[in-house]
Amino acid sequence: MNKALRKAVIAGNWKMNKTPEEAKELIAQIAPLVKDADCSVVTCVPFVDLQAALEATKGTNIGVGAENCHWEKSGAYTGEISADMLAAMGVQYVIIGHSERRTYFGETDVTVNKRVRAALDAGLTVILCVGEYLEQREQGITAELVAMQTKIALQGVSKEELARIIIAYEPVWAIGTGKTATADQANEVCAVIREVIAGLYGRDAGDGITIQYGGSMNAKNAAELLDKPDVDGGLIGGASLKAPDFAAIVEAASR
Ligand code: PGA
User: Fold this and answer.
1) 176 C-alpha to center of ligand 1: Å?
2) Could you give the CA distance from residue 158 to residue 201 in angstroms, rounded to a whole number?
3) Where are the alpha helices (DSSP H) in 105-227?
4) Which residue from 3, 7, 91 is spatially nearest to 46, judged by alpha carbons?
5) Less Cβ around it within 10 Å: N or C end of the chain?
6) Tens-place pLDDT, residues 137-177
């Protein structure tokens, strides 16, 4: 019902793909295709591509994001990048809590929360990922699990700061597998998350927050997913690496 009040956000998650040179090329292909978008367009790229992406997106309507950040401002954390470092470069967005970080790099709800806190303190906008494994869905605990992930991630986040939080519902079984959640499944869980936000921060906050779906969203299935009342955009992996496909999703979100 309040979907019209929320701006859709289509964000690409390039994961561990593209060199800086390739990043420039891909952005140069995407930019003209999305210039009239009636939604926010973001590309989240590997750390080493950020500088190239910031330059390539200058003067365009494409925002730039990182794919993770550490929670400390600086210090003895070999291999890590702080939220402050990202902000100092001019990066605006950061993905936090992606399931690949949770699965392969030991990310927990508690470290997700610390990273969210650091990103907000640095002035970044967070794309916070939550989602269940297939076994959890089969066990019937999706709603509880996603609610818990959301609550823990947002501990200590004020209602005002919520304006810089985008939540991405990404069922792990749908990521990179070609198995998209049905539009109804996606909408159902996005609605659960919206209720969690309303419970924590009030109805207006629930109605105002942007909730994306992610997991094998592509040029073909985007319109049906984005048509759902509680799906406000998408976090796009594979399809964000192909300019025409990504642009088609942006186009679907602009309608
Ligand atoms: P996918 O990835 O679109 O390739 O499934 C989505 C994501 O991991 O954000």
Assistant:
1) 5
2) 8
3) 109-121, 134-139, 142-153, 183-201, 203-208, 222-226
4) 91
5) N
6) 999 999 999 999 999 999 999 999 999 999 999 999 999 88
Ligand 1 pocket (Cβ < 6 Å) reads: 13, 170, 175-176, 214-217, 235-239
Q: What is the pLDDT of residue 2?
A: 74
Q: Which atom of ligand 1 is nearest to the CA of 239?
A: 3
Q: What is the pLDDT of residues 81-111, one digit of tens each?
A: 999 999 999 999 999 999 999 999 999 999 9
How far away, in angstroms, is 167 Cα from ligand 1 center?
14
Cα separation, 7 vs 226, in Å, equals: 12
Residue tagged 């190239």 (tokens): 52
- Residues of the chain predicted below pLDDT 70: 1
pTM of the model: 0.98
Query: Residue 23 belongs to what H/E stretch?
Result: helix 20-34
Mutation probe of ligand 1 site: the residue of 134, 216, 241 with most atoms within 8 A of C-beta: 216
Q: Which residues are catalytic?
A: 98, 170
